[in-house]
Amino acid sequence: MSSEIQFVDTYRHKGLRRKLVATIRNKGIVNAEILAAIGKIPRHFFLERAFEDWAYKDQAFPIGSDQTISQPFTVAYQSQLLELKPSDRVLEIGTGSGYQAAVLSELCEKVYTIERQESLYHRTRTLLKEIGYGRIRVYLGDGMKGIARYAPYNKILVTAGAEKTPSALLDQLTVGGCLVIPVGARKLQVMLRIWKKEGGGFETEHHDNFKFVPLLEGVRRSRPE
Asked: N or C: which end of the chain has fewer CB within 10 A?
């Protein structure tokens, strides 16, 4: 399918985004920049065309490789917890569809994102370039290890449920920076915001409960065709 056909953003799509923004605002998202990003980015670009009608429902949706595109409210909720500044360097763990990375890119200058599923990495990296988000730096690797070579980061966001907080990610935070991560059993996680303090200590805040796909170790390579 050509990009000319695939990447069409109609008045209907824009109207559906306005309704989506109203929905997540009513659920408690107050950050104007995040609401503007949700209203700007064509979420249907991140789904197969056959599932386009799901793009503007406030629901998660499968995207293949045992992954989902997160519920828009969850994307906005995690983004709001980050308290982003335009100058922030942000690391996202779990690129997935690329939608969360695109939202982050609207809010700050430098976004790094890492994906463990090789097939999804290639697909999403290409997509982000095609739709104008080529400045996002997309990497294939084990998200539990972060990306040490570009550390430290002002903010780190994990978009999968962890049984415990990976120490490597805490090490890669700047002093005064924060990690937002869902932690808990596979059926339900608590959203944590962990601030790195002077002297290497941490302060942890507990927020709402969510359900994410699990955060897994290693890299899942594509099968040879």
From this structure: C
* Vertex 103 angle, CA 42 and 205, to 5°: 140
pLDDT tens by residue, 7-65: 899 999 999 999 999 999 999 999 999 999 999 999 999 998 888 888 999 999 888 76
List pLDDT tens digits, range 121-144: 999 999 999 999 999 999 999 999
Segments making up each domain of the chain, as ranges: 60-210
Residue 114 · residue 98 · CB < 8 Å: no
Active-site residue, from 2, 3, 65, 70? 70
Q: Does 119 qualify as catalytic in the annotation?
A: no
The whole-number pLDDT of residue 6 equals 66
Topology of domain 60-210 in CATH is: Rossmann fold (3.40.50)
SS (H, E, C) the chain: CCHHHHCCCCHHHHHHHHHHHHHHHHCCCCCHHHHHHHHHCCHHHHCCHHHHHHCCCCCCEEEECCEEECCHHHHHHHHHHHCCCCCCEEEEECCCCCHHHHHHHHHCCEEEEEECEHHHHHHHHHHHHHCCCCCCEEEECCHHHCCHHHCCEEEEEECCEECCCCHHHHHCEEEEEEEEEEECCCCCEEEEEEEECHHHCEEEEEEEEECCCECCCCCECCCCC
